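Q: How would the structure tokens look for this protein?
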Amino acid sequence: MNTGKREYLWTVAPLALGALLAIPVFLAGLVDDAYIHARIVEALVQTGQPTFNLGDTFKASSSTGYIFLLAAMGTVFDTIFAMRLVEAAVIVSVFVLGAQLVRQLEAHQAFAAFALLSGVPFVLLAAYGGMETPIFVALMLGTALALRQDRFGLAVFLVAVAVWFRIETLLLLLLLLVWVLRQGQRIAVLWNAWPILVLFAIEFVLYGSILPHAAGAKSLAYGHSYEASAKLALRFGTGKLWAGILLFGLLIARLVGVLKSRDFNGYADVFFAFSGGVLCAWMIGRSNLFTWYYPLVFIPFAIGLATMPSAGRVFRGVALLVLATYLVLGGRTLLNGLGVTDTTANFRVAKYLDIGRTLYTACPDCSLVTSEIGGLGYGFRGRVYDGFGLADPEALQFHPMSVPKQRASAFIGAIPPEYIKFRNPDFVVSMPVFTAAARESGVLGGYTKHHCPFSADGSISIFGDEGIDIFSKQPLPALTITQLNCSGDSPT
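A: Here is the predicted structure in token form.
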């Protein structure tokens, strides 16, 4: 193959593959959390308040940049369509930028390509689900390209922009600034980080804080032990603890090598340090992880492997094993349900959307308590109280709930009975697994219960439940019950 044909292939093939893989974005069901973003975006467009409920003063969204980007597009497009357009464009960008990076790594192009491709399933999972982390991936690949070309100011700028989309990237920015200054660059390069100054100013004005409320809320409400948190973090992406241990071991090995040589002069080490730092933060923060989190650790790790100038045989061999494991198992998850965690999750979110819209039509002035606020909160445009605490800090005083007395496991974010009494809503809507303690406590005694199955024949079960319960202070109209395909009145 001559140079001209090779150049053409590097340009056209990734563009075509990215465009092909972007098509399912318009077909896949969004994850529940994507609808949290969508509700906040529409509040910003319509009222100028980027909040889940009007009048809130805390940061319910985990990504200010994503909210503002979608809001800007929301002046022209429907919010959900704008979200899908962004994800489609990002998928294409990731393939093109990844190919350009590999193209410049002539010494080990095959290994670099494999390293970056192994992270593709995680990127597609997040993109098909409608989350913000694929934007982070595109910015990371752009940063690596800029560093490869010694365009240090551009690299700093791109990482500063990435902080808008994921606050964890602030660690990468600090690491990068240290490395850039050690390269003898003028301190003036620091001014390229100006986007974070704008971000912090906006967030202090809007919320009085730069940290997402959701981060601390999840840590408290799930109540994981440090041991459980460490196992969960190391199982990320595959469910295989040994794969995560090997990945973490590679990061530790590289850190030890840097400390021994006292030579932190490769920008690959910047990405390695960030990857390990986020993984440790998950463990210390007792985080509950979801598929769209994985690119935050795996993509910087893959970029580090792709761009490091040299490595020993053992290190390279273990790295190949880790990459192959994540590519195979991540790919299997991706193929199961067009990129949304699993196919049945689509039924849950779709049912929540349907219930939310129907209840809001029946009673727009009513209030609602739930534990899964995404699809339900997007459909029900009135006041939605979050019993888990992500969209209501008041709920956190009733958490964590004990396991197994009040909830089935540490991975279940149930609704505290005391919170229902505290908010006294018109509706309580959730799956039975999330309301077990409330039902047993008698706090729902004044409500009428309606059960809405995921499927007519009861063949679909999620978390052991075959549908969603609606507890209503006033019996629902017969037409509403019929529209939702729910059971009739059942006083609790």
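The mean pLDDT is 88.

The radius of gyration is 24 Å.

Upvote if useful.
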